[in-house]
Design goal:
- There is one protein chain.
- With 319 residues, the chain is α/β, with parallel strands linked by helices.
- Helices cover 39% and strands 13% of the residues.
- It has one domain: TIM Barrel, CATH 3.20.20.100.
- It has eleven helices and ten strands.
Length: 319
């Protein structure tokens, strides 16, 4: 798997990044630490070298599981973690970073990210200049190697960039969710900011495993994902039916097709979660796929059966 440069930093990442939200267990159902650990090891064995986590994923549980699973290969993997919206004051950022360092059992973080903009989820409003001052200090001290932001609009990304070098933007981005293309993507391309696409499989929809009336287990936050609801769910199924022949003629799964589309997009790497080793291996093998221009054009048209009917709200869930 050929690694890519993260923004303009000296960090190199795999085009498929393993997402570990589910490893934290909170807001998910049926997650087992043993299987999560096996998935992380399988991901690395098959070329995935970057892992994305956050302090809020299970109150640090995801970070701790990642550390336990990859301690012996720390020098060969990239840790990307995040500080939540309620910890964006200067001192709070420093303390949150220290907690993440302890959880990850490391003395540096490769990519440290603002998880959500200040004020999200009822959090206190903190000037972005103050938050970025803490990030810049951590970077100057060598505690973090690169700075990223998540769920930022173009205007928020521009403001953050005025206060320091931003090397990545992490938005929800998939064949079925493409708001970033109309907002921040051109800026990212121009300024060499890597797009780390989360929910690149539309939280499982692009695997083709969920029917139009799927019922999630209690506690699974995906029940509130707008793509799973009402008319969107029917449009998704129509689009999936049209995508299946493309996957079949390429000899790959729907999930691999979707990930190959994501990694073909400008400046984009795809974050994909995995509950077990087999899913991690399947995701990893998508990294080396190259789809034809004709297939990509057909997929673009199919994806718009869903995205053309979405509103301008960039948040995927009815929270």
């Amino acid at each position: 798997m050929q690694l890519r440069v993260l923004g303009t930093s000296d960090v190199k990442i795999s085009p498929i990044v393993m997402g570990t939200w589910q490893a934290g267990k909170a807001m998910w159902a049926g997650i087992e630490d043993r299987e999560t650990t096996a998935a992380m090891r399988a991901a690395f064995a098959n070329g995935i070298t970057a892992f994305d986590t956050a302090e809020v994923y299970g109150n640090g549980h995801s970070e701790r599981i990642l550390a336990a699973a990859t301690a012996d290969i720390r020098d060969r993997v990239v840790y990307a973690t995040k500080v939540f919206a309620n910890h964006l004051k200067f001192d709070q950022v420093l303390k949150a970073c220290d907690r993440s360092l302890k959880n990850l059992k490391t003395d540096y973080i490769d990519l440290y990210q603002i998880h959500w903009p200040s004020g999200s989820f009822g959090s206190a409003s903190v000037p972005l200049a103050e938050t970025m001052a803490a990030f810049n200090q951590l970077k100057e001290q060598g505690i973090i190697r690169a700075i990223g932001v998540c769920n930022f609009s173009l205007s928020q990304l521009e403001e953050a960039s005025a206060h320091g070098r931003i090397d990545s933007l992490q938005p929800p981005y998939s064949l079925f969710w493409r708001h970033v293309e109309k907002d921040a993507m051109p800026y990212c391309i121009k300024n060499k900011i890597t797009i780390l696409a989360y929910a690149s499989l539309a939280q499982g929809l692009l695997t083709g495993k969920f029917g139009p009336h799927h019922q999630f287990a209690k506690g699974d936050h995906r029940a509130r994902n707008r793509l799973f609801q009402s008319e969107n769910a029917q449009r998704v199924q129509t689009a999936l039916a049209k995508l299946r022949p493309i996957a079949a003629r390429n000899g790959i799964s729907l999930a691999q097709l979707a990930l190959a589309w994501s990694t073909s997009r400008p400046a984009t790497c795809a974050i994909a979660g995995a509950r077990n080793a087999s899913q991690a291996i399947e995701n990893a093998h998508a990294a080396d796929l190259i789809l034809s221009a004709a297939d990509l054009a057909e997929m673009d048209k199919i994806g718009r059966l869903v995205t053309d009917h979405l509103d301008e709200n960039p948040v995927m869930w009815n929270l």
